[in-house]
What does this fold into?
Amino acid sequence: MISALNQEETRALLSEARTGRLGCVVAGGPYIVPVNYVFHDDRIYIHSLPGRKVDALRANPRACLQVDDVQDAYHWRSVIAFGRYEEVTDDGERQWAMRRLLARFPHLTPVESVPVHDGQSSVILFRIDVEEMTGVGEK
Amino acid sequence: MISALNQEETRALLSEARTGRLGCVVAGGPYIVPVNYVFHDDRIYIHSLPGRKVDALRANPRACLQVDDVQDAYHWRSVIAFGRYEEVTDDGERQWAMRRLLARFPHLTPVESVPVHDGQSSVILFRIDVEEMTGVGEK
It folds into this structure.
């Protein structure tokens, strides 16, 4: 039976999952990119090299993250969180978030992990401040 | 090493994958929903019950489909295809596409499979006519 997830179930899936699909609007059309992320306190932390998604989100900060967990055709959960792009510029918050990302994704390349060591890098660390989230699942 | 996929590799991933993430624009913001689909002749066929994504795509037909295949952190491929929403209304094309969808996704519920038998249903069958596709991968 397909039914809505409650807020606790929705947050649980956002906390458990490691990969999500980040959506943004580029020149009036949709754009999606898979990302690793950390979810903490209704904020989604993501790091990125400069490029299309960061340019797009700077121009239009409306973003969403879709996450799912599919066991099989009859047992699955899917969540979408909507919010706004905020670049993380505070040194303390950057270092905290990079440590969390590295702990979860130790395969981050040395270039991507630089901010942990010196706080300087071309890596962009941003967060999506979640304003609304909904989930649905079948079990 | 991360590199662009060529057109053949990009089409191959779109053909192999079963689940993708459909992106559209809802009230100026991004929206993503996981979908099963069939890719044929640069068209992506998707069926849906009426709802938010169909309403959105009727209002703004710009769509994208993102598909990936992640073996592990160092072996993955990801593709995004951009195109336009077109509702499939021709009976012959509807029946052909529903048969292909059912052959690939036999768990479709009886309600969803009705169009195969009588051509009448509230199920919406649409396609994304792909105008641009790009892929990237690491191996």
